[in-house]
Design brief:
- The chain has 263 residues and is of the alpha/beta class.
- Helix content is 44%, strand content 14%.
- The chain is built from 11 helices and 7 strands.
- Strands 1, 2, 3, 4, 5, 6 and 7 form a 7-stranded parallel beta sheet that branches.
- Helix 1 runs parallel beside helix 10 and helix 9 runs parallel beside helix 11.
Length: 263
């Protein structure tokens, strides 16, 4: 029987102290094993210090290239030569800053998944290869499980899955020597990865390697059910990562929780 392997990642490490606290709690007390760090955010130095104090936590680069307007920037990267020219230097700058913070990255991905833009992905992949960064994320494979769990917003979620599925199909053959998990969940219910939904996904994990990513926060009052917060950072998702039921489901399903090499 083929092993079920799971990578559990927290995005936006370094965003602020509430996110940083959640990441470390979820690593020490829960099932979190990886985090993606935003090097230009106010909590970046604190996040790097916490990562150094917890060397078993795998930390990667959470590339920022679009502010809060990914659709607009996506079009600019297609049609503006001057904006395209800034991509490679910005990727290198952010990797360099991560290194200056004392982090040797285990992976890379992007804020708003901007890294799957067809212009950006090949540049990021080549930078990863040069720097020995072993893994990249390509979201996809979540739709059937998502709609099986609940069919709310089925049309919009199907459209989002189709768009990212098309990108994934075109980019995965161009991954070069960089690892890409067979499927990545977290896109379609971003910010509302409740304990029940996480249990639903675990119960349906197919053989092979899957990544699930979340946006935990320790901020009081950030609990959600069906509607995410504006930043998608929630106490709900921290509780999902800390859940004894989630840990037990992984054990019962025989899921191998992947961790940083050597830990």
């Amino acid at each position: 029987m083929t092993t079920r392997s799971l990578i559990v990642t927290a995005d936006d490490f370094g965003y602020d102290s509430a996110v940083n606290e959640a990441v470390i709690r979820a690593y020490r007390e829960g099932v979190l094993r990886y985090a993606s760090l935003m090097v230009d955010r106010p909590g970046a130095e604190e996040a790097a210090r916490l990562a150094r104090e917890n060397p078993g936590l795998g930390v990667g680069l959470h590339l920022e290239l679009c502010g809060d307007h990914p659709g607009l920037w996506g079009m600019r990267y297609f049609f503006s030569p001057s904006d395209r020219a800034r991509i490679k230097p910005e990727i290198e700058r952010q990797f360099d800053k991560l290194g200056a913070l004392g982090i040797s990255p285990t992976h890379a991905d992007g804020h708003f998944n901007i890294h799957v833009h067809p212009v950006i992905f090949p540049l990021l992949r080549r930078s990863c290869e040069r720097r020995g960064v072993p893994r990249l994320r390509l979201p996809g494979g979540e739709l059937s499980a998502c709609l099986g769990y609940r069919r709310d917003h089925a049309l919009s979620r199907s459209g989002l899955a189709a768009a990212f599925g098309t990108l994934r199909a075109g980019l995965r053959p161009r991954r070069g020597n960089v690892e890409v998990p067979e499927r990545t969940f977290g896109l379609l219910r971003s910010g509302t990865m409740t304990e029940d939904y996480l249990l639903w996904l675990i119960e349906r994990l197919p053989p092979g390697e899957t990544e699930i990513y979340l946006h935990p926060s320790a901020r009081s009052g950030s609990e959600v059910e069906d509607v995410p917060t504006p930043t998608h950072h929630t106490l709900t998702e921290l509780r999902s990562l800390l859940s004894p039921r989630v840990r037990e489901a992984l054990r019962q399903r025989g899921v191998v929780l992947r961790q940083k090499t050597g830990y």
